[in-house]
Amino acid sequence: MPLIVQKYGGSSVADAERIINVAKRIGAVQKSGAAVVVVVSAMGDTTDELIELAHTISHEPHAREMDLLLSTGELVSSTLLTMALRELGHEAISLSGPQAGIRTDTSFGRARISRIEPARVRRELDAGRIVVVAGFQGITAEDDITTLGRGGSDTTAVAIAAALQADRCEIYTDVEGIYTADPRIVSGARKIDEVGYEEMLELASLGAKMHPRSIELGGVYRVPIYVASSFSDTPGTLIHAVGNGPADAFAAGLPTAAKPEPEHITAISPSAEFQTGNQMEDRIKVTGIAYNANVAKITVQSVPDRPGLAAALFEPLAEASISVDTIVQNTGGDKSTDISFTVSRTDLPAAVRLVEGMAQQLGAAGVVSSAGLAAVSIVGSGMQNTPGYASRMFRLLANGGVNIDMITTSEIRISCIIDESQGRDAVRLLHEGFQLDRS
């Protein structure tokens, strides 16, 4: 019997009618002969409402209590969905994250999964039940409830799929897959039929629909991930190890219209440039445009340049579980250096407090910060080994009057930090300039 893990986002279970519709979809999968584990997010805007409520009570809510509060949202949706399944005649049981065996570290608000003990889930599956797991949550060795951070239900689903060695993990949301750009910004954005783990990780980390930690887990454990809409049967996007073809069990379980043919997986779709006679290596390698408006920058000014400077500056941020993205260091002739780096806008106040304390110890001239920034990126495999992509990106932005504040690159990504007010225009400029609206 194939085993399928499905995840439904908050918009998919936002009210009673949608919960019943999701229950019907799940029941149809079980009737087709598959065992099913379902992971759910909190209903609609429940998490935001709980956060707002907490801040009306406390200016700075205690992290442990906040996690316990926020975990209740997923418990509500998982139990209601289980009730709906039972009303439809299906044997089903809801489990909290701890009951499902999800063990985490102690980083409240952004905990990481240390291991999964799936014995309870397996027992319920063996009894013929649909198992509905509350996403986004786990438990520490000290029996404290933790949450995995925003988008953590994606991570829950892929982690459970990996632990159970499921045939596939299906992520259902309010969009029909992964697009070449945010369709709310670019009207001509095109849905991507398939994408590799590495490219998707870059897209996800820069604001695409999937949570990056879930893509990391999928890549490590080779869990095929299928992203589609819960509101239609339109084929979605397959995330997998491109070049190896999808797992047979995965392809066999997709709706007929969504089954990727092996030759489609391994072949390169000819671009307009290739059709006009250019070499295969000259094809357009940009898969999509990623956009993230949750960006802030901190600059430590005129720090004496000496060994250990970067370690002293960034270690306190790491200990506070604050992630740093783009880093730029400039050393002047006077042997002093400016260090600029980006963090998420939500982490800015805490990051500035830590950096200001360390900057004084390091003898820096000062610390300045700004919050109104965004990151816009082109993502695609092989760009680093093909000249011209960076210059083309910069020219497109320059022609559109978009000023670049910082630049960072990887094997499959080129990112520019820009003013947030120009972010949406930049996405449209790049999407059109790299002709991503063409099949």
Number of helices: 14
Largest sheet: 8 strands, mixed
Q: How would you name the CATH homologous superfamily of the largest domain?
A: Acetylglutamate kinase-like
By oligomeric state, this entry counts as single chain
CATH topology of the largest domain: Carbamate kinase
Q: How many structurally independent domains?
A: 2
InterPro entries: AceGlu_kinase-like_sf, ACT-like_dom_sf, ACT_Aspartokinase, ACT_dom, AKii-LysC-BS, Asp/Glu/Uridylate_kinase, Asp_kin_monofn, Asp_kinase
Enzyme class: transferase
Catalytic activity: L-aspartate + ATP = 4-phospho-L-aspartate + ADP
Protein name: Aspartokinase
Describe how the helices and strands are arranged.
Blueprint: E1 3-8, H1 16-31, E2 35-40, H2 46-57, H3 63-87, E3 92-95, E4 102-104, E5 113-116, H4 119-126, E6 130-134, E7 137-139, E8 145-147, H5 152-164, E9 168-173, E10 194-196, H6 197-205, H7 212-221, E11 225-229, E12 237-240, H8 248-253, H9 262-266, H10 272-275, E13 288-304, H11 309-319, E14 327-331, E15 336-343, H12 348-362, E16 366-379, H13 389-399, E17 404-410, E18 413-419, H14 423-433
Parallel strand pairs: 1-2, 1-9, 2-6, 3-6, 9-11, 10-12
Antiparallel strand pairs: 4-5, 7-8, 11-12, 13-15, 13-16, 14-15, 16-18, 17-18
